[in-house]
Amino acid sequence: MKQTKLCAELNIKYPIIQAGMVWVSGAKLAAAAANAGCLGVIGAGSMKLDLLRSQIQKANSLTAKPLAINLPLLYKDIEKQIEISIEEGIKIFITSAGSPKKFTKYLQNKGCYVIHVTSSFLLAKKCEDAGVNAVIIEGFEAGGHNGRAELTSLVLIPEVSKQLSIPVIAAGGFSSGASVLAGLTMGAEAIQIGTRFMMTTESSAHDSYKNLLVESGEEDTFLRLKKHVPVRLLKNKFEAEIAELEDKGANKQELENHLGRGRAKSGMLEGDIKDGELEAGQICGFIKDIKPLAKVVEDILSEYDEAYKRIYNP
Amino acid sequence: MKQTKLCAELNIKYPIIQAGMVWVSGAKLAAAAANAGCLGVIGAGSMKLDLLRSQIQKANSLTAKPLAINLPLLYKDIEKQIEISIEEGIKIFITSAGSPKKFTKYLQNKGCYVIHVTSSFLLAKKCEDAGVNAVIIEGFEAGGHNGRAELTSLVLIPEVSKQLSIPVIAAGGFSSGASVLAGLTMGAEAIQIGTRFMMTTESSAHDSYKNLLVESGEEDTFLRLKKHVPVRLLKNKFEAEIAELEDKGANKQELENHLGRGRAKSGMLEGDIKDGELEAGQICGFIKDIKPLAKVVEDILSEYDEAYKRIYNP
Questions:
Q1: How does pLDDT run along chain A (314 residues), one tens digit per residue?
Q2: Are B52 and B44 in contact, with CB atoms under 8 Å apart?
Q3: Disulfide-capable partner of B20 in A140, A233, B43, B182 (CB 3.0 to 4.6 Å)?
């Protein structure tokens, strides 16, 4: 697999980043990804401070490779989350859901590498102007929180890669080695993979949720809650209730009232697959197994080689 | 550029198909595409029978290359449209908006090659089972009428290409040579390009509409009319009215009433850019010029080479 400049900067073997996913990407998943040659990322958004510290320590005990932390900037304890991450030796920060101006300089002054997640060219340009080291550009097909412009990966990657001078990491819709090669072909310096890595033995998604993902079909995710914060959900009872409210023209407040609090945790971590919020990317409908992360990476490498030979076969 | 098996079957130099687009892809555009080494396609859906015959004749007078016809199967004169096309020497039919079972065998018995347009793996499999020669799989980012599953090109192409044994043509989101190479990398046998070819001197889109497309930004198309037939529209007064109705929970009938008849013609062909229906793909926001189709193809070829070298640099 192509070694990009970003591989050297991040000290990773393959240009693959395991997405930081709320409730499902803890120490075990991040360490497994790091040990498999990818960038392992602890999804810290949902973690209380003690848990965050212990998860970083645990991940560091499971791998000698560099780890990153994914921090949505909207939580009240964000400054403490940052301090703990730095204290525990994290050098790569993936930030989202807030202004890239807010902590970038501070983190860089502490010797950290800052990647901001965004969903359009104009927002990516703002990240570059704010001085981040790299951007993750996430398409409409991605699971979880999603951009308002609904731009897809195929539309975004060639354009954003061409127009920005910092490295662009492509996210949304990737699970096969063929798509990884396609992303690099379009100019991405690395590919972020979420749903396929959530569907591994090491992710902390509840088994009931994993089973539901395996059984899902291609038409089973929907972008919901557009009047609140758009989020791609796997269909279930909760999603159907939101769909019905939206069909009737419910406003932001009505949607927020029905969403309430704690549904993502109860769904994805605790396995309430009826009333919980189940975040997943479109690609889940095509993934038919749960296996160790290292096996997923092995498959990606062989699919990559196959796709490579399809084009570069003299 | 890679010569796929489909290039040989369709007798084209490049694995690129100019999309048949209602009101904008007549004889001039189809002949220009054919002369540039692509498959030229007359978008016949909107054409009355006399116009259809004269457009095929005109196209044939402008090129010696093979031409295809794009026929949505929902118009009342569909059988006559087919007869006229066969009489005028068309050998490649691209069908959509109806069952692939309906005319495939009939057309194949007349020596024609049948390609059906679809938008999900399950629908593509049904096309294969119906015996079509190839499928066009169109992602959410595409302009005009769109699938209900909202699956994107990046999600669909690797999976559909892997699971079908007939050739898969990728559509939706393509305009640069880098994306064309990415599509082929993921297993497509050809790439269909719509919006980029609509934004050429040879397309019959009205100049006012072309200018609006050039000025558009990345956030300016929206998938509307989902309760009727989903269609990706460029923002304008009409689109905003539909958005407002949808926001309030309008039902199918209310949407159809507001849509009325003839809006696509008045918008795209006649240039009523306020009240007309303007169909366009997401990629329009990144296209900043109108130029001859041959120049577009030339640019695609050089971008393709650049993307090729990005990966294959021994």
A1: 999 999 999 999 999 999 999 999 999 999 999 999 999 999 998 899 999 999 999 999 999 999 999 999 988 999 999 999 999 999 999 999 999 999 999 999 999 999 999 999 999 999 999 999 999 999 999 999 999 999 999 999 999 999 999 999 999 999 999 999 999 999 999 999 999 999 999 999 999 999 999 999 999 999 999 999 999 999 999 999 999 999 999 999 999 999 999 999 999 999 999 999 999 999 999 999 999 999 999 999 999 999 999 998 75
A2: yes
A3: B43
Domain boundaries, chain A: 5-204+287-308, 207-284
Q: Does B312 touch chain A (CB under 8 A)?
A: yes
- Taking only residues 144 to 163 of chain B, the set having a beta carbon closer than 8 angstroms to any beta carbon of chain A reads 148-155, 157-159, 162
Instruction: Please check whether residue B310 touches A, CB under 8 A.
Output: yes
| Residues A129, B314: Cα–Cα separation, whole Å | 34
Sheet bearing B221-224, strands edge to edge:
B144-145, B231-234, B221-224
Among the partner-chain residues B148, B152, B310, the one whose CB lies closest to the CB of A140 is B152
Please name the CATH architecture into which domain A5-204+287-308 falls: Alpha-Beta Barrel (3.20)
Q: Please list, in sequence order, all residues whose beta carbon lies within 8 angstroms of the beta carbon of residue B132, skipping any fewer than 6 positions away.
A: B100, B104, B114, B115, B116, B166
What's the 3-state SS for chain A?
A: CCCCHHHHHHCCCCCEEECCCCCCCCHHHHHHHHHCCCEEEEECCCCCHHHHHHHHHHHHHHCCCCEEEEEECCCCCHHHHHHHHHHCCCCEEEEECCCCCCCHHHHHHCCCEEEEEECCHHHHHHHHHCCCCEEEEECCCCCEECCCCCCCHHHHHHHHHHHCCCCEEEECCCCCHHHHHHHHHCCCCEEEECHHHHCECCCCCCHHHHHHHHHCCCCCEEEECCCCCCEEEECCHHHHHHHHHHHCCCCHHHHHHHHCCCHHHHHHHCCCCCCCCCECCHHHHHCCCCECHHHHHHHHHHHHHHHHHHHCCC
Residue A219 is encoded by which pair of tokens? Answer: 């038409």
